[in-house]
Amino acid sequence: xxxxxxxxxxxxxxxxxxxxxxxxxxxxxxxxxxxxxxxxxxxxxxxxxxxxxxxxxxxxxxxxxxxxxxxxxxxxxxxxxxxxxxxxxxxxxxxxxxxxxxxxxxxxxxxxxxxxxxxxxxxxxxxxxxxxxxxxxxxxxxxxxxxxxxxxxxxxxxxxxxxxxxxxxxxxxxxxxxxxxxxxxxxxxxxxxxxxxxxxxxxxxxxxxxxxxxxxxxxxxxxxxxxxxxxxxxxxxxxxxxxxxxxxxxxxxxxxxxxxxxxxxxxxxxxxxxxxxxxxxxxxxxxxxxxxxxxxxxxxxxxxxxxxxxxxxxxxxxxxxxxxxxxxxxxxxxxxxxxxxxxxxxxxxxxxxxxxxxxxxxxxxxxxxxxxxxxxxxxxxxxxxxxxxxxxxxxxxxxxxxxxxxxxxxxxxxxxxxxxxxxxxxxxxxxxxxxxxxxxxxxxxxx
Length: 447
Fold this sequence. Notes:
Number of strands: 25
Domain Jacalin-type lectin: 301-440
Keywords: Signal
CATH class of the largest domain: Alpha Beta
Signal peptide: 1-23
Strand content: 35-45%
Structural class: alpha+beta
Number of domains: 2
Helix content: 10-25%
CATH topology of the largest domain: Deoxyribonuclease I, Chain A
Pfam families: Exo_endo_phos2, Jacalin
GO biological process, one term: phosphatidylinositol dephosphorylation
């Protein structure tokens, strides 16, 4: 529940008059993490419509970096991070940060600054762009979206997406921007199946504009809009009067949990008053938008950490598992490395990942037998980190193993009362990245 909900009309007057936050923060309980999206306006001079001097841009980036550090934002997505990137990173102290892509032609202007590590990270360019003029950056920079699988806690991974869509309100701008949104939606539906997701960035879209397709995030990917939730749960209708929805901005935060992870937005805030210069001037042209989140594993489900490298194709068995799944057999394939994995359930479902190389090693579980410990080892081959070895030991001391052990290994105990029932990670001809899905055993649910 939000500490305080603000209805649309009240919120519009609040934002119009004061650019204040959408919710109070006094006496709120601690939440698990925060995310923020901010357009830092670090455009190169040629593309800056305001003609801001380099000295001023540098001072602004310095203040922004200091304020980000002061308020300890969990994960920050920034857009238009071009000319002042070095200054921003100099004064910000988040321990995990994406690397700048370099020259404008190869740079999306998207970066992430985080207190949490991530298992993988990708930058995807837009399939289409439209520039209104030579000073429009939309087709000069390599704009698009980024996606990273962020580890916010043991076994808790969230796909976090940063984006900066095509600008403008012309006929071809709308066509291009709709294509941008569709591209992100298609990515989520292909590569984030079974995963919790947070999308936060500059959509350049409004619910009040009938030409925008921003609703696709909620209708096609089962995401919720943290702003819509904060104003009472109902988005403005297309074509409605923008003057009564002054609190809506194009910088948005969408989210969803998963079958295993309960993800809840507990507040949305416009941090305009935080990001001011010593003279009291706003440091950003767009409102910095922050959301608070609380998470927990859902009853009956847990996940392990991920091990290996960010290569191959993503997979996740979670959404394909039946109710109350129970493991029947384990098949590992390996030679010099871990080539493949197959998990079969007593109800007949079989989940196979990786390739067909190596030798197959199998273990059929007996009644009341379940996986107790797991060992994975990983190493590097052809410049790519991947899993080299897996060993699974049951509560009856029986084992199945494949591949070759390395110096980098992890052994852990499956949570008490749970059993391995599926896997998630990345694969190709071998097991690039691997984690396990646990379900609570039926005998434990009854106790």
